[in-house]
Design brief:
With about 550 residues, this protein is of the alpha/beta class. About 30% of the residues lie in helices and about 25% in strands. A hairpin with a 5-residue loop joins β20 (about 440-450) and β21 (about 455-460).
Amino acid sequence: MDKIWLNSYPANVKHEINPNEYSSLTDLLNQAFQKHGDSPFSVCMERWMSYKELDQLSQALGAWFQAQGLQPGDRIAIMLPNVPQFAVTMAAVLRAGYTCVNVNPLYTARELEHQLKDSGASAIVILENFASTLAEVIGHTGIQHTVIASLGDLLGPFYGRWMTFAVRHLAKMVPEFELPLHDKHKVTSFKQAIAAGRQMNLKSVSQSLDDIAFLQYTGGTTGLSKGAVLTHRNIVAAILQAETWFAPALSRLPDLRKVNSIAALPLYHIFALTLCLLAIRQGSHLTLVPNPRDFAKFIETLKKRPFHMLPGVNTLFNALLQHPMFKTIDFSNLCLTQAGGMAASEGTARAWQAATGSAMIEGWGMSETCAIGTNNPVTRTSFSGNIGLPLPSIDMAIKDEDGNSLAQGESGEICIRGPNVMVGYYKQEEETQKAFTPDGYMRTGDVGIMDEQGYFRIVDRKKDMIIVSGFNVFPSELENVISLCTGVLECAAIGIPDAMQGEAIKVFVVRSDSMLTEDALARYCHDNLTGYKRPKYIEFRDELPKSNVGKILRRELRSNTH
């Protein structure tokens, strides 16, 4: 298929990127640290870290890892929130020749055990707040080295010590834990590992673009999560794709090193991770937000200094809009509001633009595509409702069940091919084979359509489709329509068994106006949705179940509905 979307690219956005610009992701890191040494890399709780410090700390930790006898390619798990230790650990693992396994710090013991066993991780760096979960399962894993970090480790000698004390003893946020100590398992504090590593030299390791950089585990919305194998080439390609795509939005800033990106989404998530690595390449800095759910503190952070990039998910933007202090934020420097991770609703997008003057730019991607696969042009001045255009060097097609490409305008599975697309699922050959078509496209599981300008629109996830009396109903369409009803804050639609129709539609709604009634919402749906798309059941709730990155979990709604 011709890349008709290239005709819709903004001026000066390159059509192709070249990952061979670097010999590895480690090469990119090394060059960036040398080039940007004196520039700030991050600020967390008003404590700054420079690129020079990131360089030195990651060298020290990497050297310490090497001294533990780990072999090149070994997997090291990283179970950290958005604190300075995350970037230090990630860079250390890569520079020392190992593979990063990002772990959600809020995992249950069952989820953590699965990921550690599946990845074969032999070491883990974990914030002490979550160590009690590790203690429950470590005996069933191959972990030989545990590095325990404390919140204040890199926040300065006095403030850092105070923060660690406050978290442990005042807020009591560190549950008691006991990790085994024996010949096959050693426990070291983050500070001890850094101090020891400073006395060592980081040995250079031969790496190529085809080596594994990350095992990025999928969200596990169906069954056990799988590790997407992301190579150095995949990650470098994603960084370069994001850089050229975002360039028009940042063009008003003469020096990219002045760009301040808000890191509120968790860095272990592929979306935020890619933007973190983009910041490193450009020499810009991140404002780290360890707990974005504390919206009062989050807003105070946004008020402290000008910010230029704000990536988020629909629920994050929604929550900010609802906060009474939201109107005190200065958005005059905001160059890009980037939405991803889940579908952005038109209601939220309209409210955001009205309040901030910044259009919400929606994109789409997966762990398997290193975050961004498509994005709307950042030059757009209004919300589009689609997922945009394929990024440079990406091929996309709409295919049927047999892998045949469909004509423009036909609905089918969105399939993607490009240098950012994973090579497969870790040690799961059968799942990998299922994931790819014979001509090398990865099946995304998203049902979509491409229009005549090359813009893609998702109709829905195949597995979330509701079938009412033989008609296909896509939850995202219902949710988008219902989100525009006055008094609706957010909503989710699912199908439930129905003797007459096969499935009936049930909608869960969180109200922004307690005066909204079921009858009023039903009348709105009657006026705006065709018969078979109207919900049979409406349930008001105080909140909807969400993943740690803010995705509404329809599967939990389904499992709790009888």
